[in-house]
Design brief:
The complex is a heterodimer of chains A (117) and B (113). With 117 residues, chain A is mostly beta strands. Chain A contains no helices and 12 strands. In chain A, strand 5 and strand 6 form a beta hairpin. Chain B is an all-beta fold and 113 residues long. Classes of the chains: A mainly beta (117), B mainly beta (113).
Amino acid sequence: AQSVTQLDSHVSVSEGTPVLLRCNYSSSYSPSLFWYVQHPNKGLQLLLKYTSAATLVKGINGFEAEFKKSETSFHLTKPSAHMSDAAEYFCVVSPHILTGGGNKLTFGTGTQLKVEL
Amino acid sequence: DAGVIQSPRHEVTEMGQEVTLRCKPISGHDYLFWYRQTMMRGLELLIYFNNNVPIDDSGMPEDRFSAKMPNASFSTLKIQPSEPRDSAVYFCASSLRMNTEAFFGQGTRLTVV
């Protein structure tokens, strides 16, 4: 079975400083991994995805994530936080087709990002 | 494409009443998902369809919940009878193929009083 662990439930940064949101995954095979963002009272928006191509993935709004198989991690980063980045972020794993896990995305518990002036 | 469209955006109903949530997936997407989001339990997958056929409904909490997908462009999630503990935001999502990203609707905020 697959799983994701988001190591921090809340992260607070100052505007203009780097952002690091941590995610570790567990999967029998090389999975597909995603980061989604949810602004208050909104739906979930895809930030970026990893599907076994380049290990460094660039997404929207300046975010990027690096797939590290040896560490089973897929941390989300941004060089400089903006006030508009304040939201909840979800790390998501999709099962490899060989696992027989169907098409069930597994969501992490979310990390609430706060950006202060 | 307008994305995944859900209706209504907000629903307030009395305990015991029937509630129907509606979803129009992105055209051409083969998979449709229904999720529920609460503070206590986070995001939970209720059910998903492939080519209009229910594949996994193990997340449906009780017999009071049912979901249908009569055609490729429409799905409903029905709760009958509704209870206060059903209060949550319900999301519909669709994806093009297996193991690809899902695109989410704006959600329906359900309040059962």
